[in-house]
UniProtKB/TrEMBL annotation:
The lineage of its organism: Bacteria, Pseudomonadati, Bacteroidota, Cytophagia, Cytophagales. PANTHER family: OBG GTPASE FAMILY, OBG-TYPE G DOMAIN-CONTAINING PROTEIN. Belongs to the TRAFAC class OBG-HflX-like GTPase superfamily. OBG GTPase family. YchF/OLA1 subfamily. This is Ribosome-binding ATPase YchF. It comes from Algoriphagus aquatilis. Keywords: ATP-binding, Magnesium, Metal-binding, Nucleotide-binding. It holds the Pfam family YchF-GTPase_C. The gene is ychF.
Length: 365
């Protein structure tokens, strides 16, 4: 399941530095707008201590973590919705991702130019929001023009769809993101084909100076207050420090470096885990001597759907799933030990997979 998070932000907020720290796919970081012209894609492992526990218990030949793709998208300027700067390319690239990681500058540095002339996280947020809203408004208005003709003919379905579209138009015109417009799941079908930019889930990253990584600062406070209305999370990190942390291969050296800053884990780990949660994803595991592996699925998926992530035949010929909880595996040490102590449950097609389940599928095709 290749899911992508698009890293966006105004020029010179630190998003390419952050991307470089996230991924070995190095984007050019430079002190001028548009240094990242083509989107760079980095494949990032999702940190999960449960994999290490299973590795210690099973001693497999290899361990395969689950992944998320991050896309570093070209910087945005005011007027992008009308094609200013690299606006058209930016909007096309962001339309393809599943979620948005919005990096906002929350540090002062006279050596790094800010496009607005000064640090203002609310300005940064609203510039991007406005450009995306304007593009979404354009998409909604075009569909309204098409649906109006059908609705005037008396088509009841078209009339209802038109009402929903007008609701989105009014919300976007008022400066709301589509995700903040209150409609039920069925009503979302009216705009699903439009692939609205502001309907995508968003996670805000406050890029701060070294002295603010533990306590934040006034800019972080302003940002948190502003995004309350969206019920969105804010992750505080220092991209410059994260780029240094990413250089460490040795886990003990990395831990020592983190402790020097009073950190228990890197901001990147928080970001990756936050993005995973933002996409409504969970992990289940398969464990054997050849491989211990983490698999990504959507929260709420049934056992056959989860099996299909491994191979479509597993879903098509699904018979049952054998499920072990990690705590039981830790207690009884082996799969055989869990079986002997009645800690393997047999689940059918209606079983909803839980985060952390260790699963073995039986199938026949």
């Amino acid at each position: 399941m290749a899911l992508q998070c698009g890293i966006v932000g105004l020029p010179n907020v630190g998003k390419s530095t952050l991307f470089n720290a996230l991924s070995s796919a190095k984007a050019e970081a430079a002190n001028f707008p548009f240094c990242t012209i083509e989107p760079n894609v980095g494949v990032v492992s999702v940190p999960d201590k449960r994999l290490q526990i299973l590795e210690g218990l099973v001693n497999p030949q290899r361990v395969v973590p689950t992944i998320i793709e991050f896309v570093d998208i070209a910087g945005l300027v005011k007027g992008a919705s009308k094609g200013e700067g690299l606006g058209n390319k930016f909007l096309a690239n962001i339309r393809e991702v599943d979620a948005i990681i919005h990096v906002i500058r929350c540090f002062e540095d006279s050596n790094i130019v800010h496009v607005a002339g000064g640090v203002d996280p609310i300005f940064d947020k609203e510039v991007i929001d406005t450009e995306l809203q304007l593009k979404d408004l354009e998409s909604v208005e075009k569909k309204i023009q098409r649906i109006e003709k059908i609705a005037k003919s008396g088509d009841a379905k078209a009339k209802r769809e038109l009402e929903i579209l007008i609701q989105f138009k009014d919300g976007l015109t008022a400066g709301l993101n589509a995700r903040a417009i209150e409609v039920d799941k069925e009503e979302l079908e009216a705009v699903r084909d439009l692939h609205l930019l502001t309907i995508k889930p968003v996670l805000y990253v406050a890029n701060v100076d070294e002295g603010s990584i533990l306590t934040g600062n006034k800019f972080v406070d302003q940002l948190r207050e502003k995004v309350k209305e969206e019920n969105a999370d804010v992750i505080v990190l220092c991209a410059a420090i994260e780029s240094q942390i990413a250089e460490f291969d040795d886990a003990d050296e990395k831990a020592m470096f983190l402790s020097e800053y009073g950190l228990e884990e890197s901001g990147l780990n928080k970001l990756i885990s936050g993005a995973y949660s933002l996409l409504n994803l969970i992990t289940y595991f398969t464990a054997g001597v050849q491989e211990v592996r983490a698999w990504t699925i959507r929260k709420g998926w049934k056992a056959p759907q989860a099996a299909g992530v491994i191979h479509t035949d597993f879903e098509r010929g699904f018979i049952k799933a054998e499920v072990i909880k990690l705590g039981d595996y830790q207690q009884f040490k082996t799969e055989a030990g869990c079986r002997e102590n009645g800690k393997i449950s047999i689940e059918g097609k209606e079983y909803t997979v839980q985060d952390g389940d260790i699963m073995h599928f039986r199938f026949n095709v």
